[in-house]
Amino acid sequence: MGMSRDRLYATLGLPRATMERRLAKDEPLSAEQSSRVLGIARLIGQVQAMLDESGTPAGFDAGAWVGRWLGEPVPALGGRCPAELMDTAEGQMLVANLLARAQSGAYA
C-alpha cells in the first residue's frame, strides 16, 4: 500500500505495541482487529474491481492508490481524510460508499 506500519495501525485504530507483539509471536488478531484489516483489504478490492470494469491502466496499483487516497482530504467528507473513518465498520462502509458514488458520478 505504500504506507508505513505506523500509519496503517493509526488508520485502523490498532495499538502499535499490540500489533507488533502479535506479529513477533505469530499470534492471530482478535475478531475486531481482523475486521478492521479486512475492511481495508475490501476497499482495495473495490478499487481494483472499479478498474477491471473500466479497463485497468497499465501499471496502476490499486493498493498504493488507496494508501495515498486515504490520507487526502475529501470535500464529500467535509474536508476530512478517509483514513479518519477507517477505524470502525461504519466508517469503512461510508468510505466504500463514497468510492461507489464517485464511480457512478454521484460524488458529492
UniProtKB/TrEMBL annotation:
Domain called Antitoxin Xre-like helix-turn-helix: residue spans: 1-42
Antitoxin Xre/MbcA/ParS-like toxin-binding domain sequence ranges: 63-105
UniProt xrefs under Pfam families: Xre-like-HTH (PF20432), Xre_MbcA_ParS_C (PF09722)
Name assigned to this protein: DUF2384 domain-containing protein
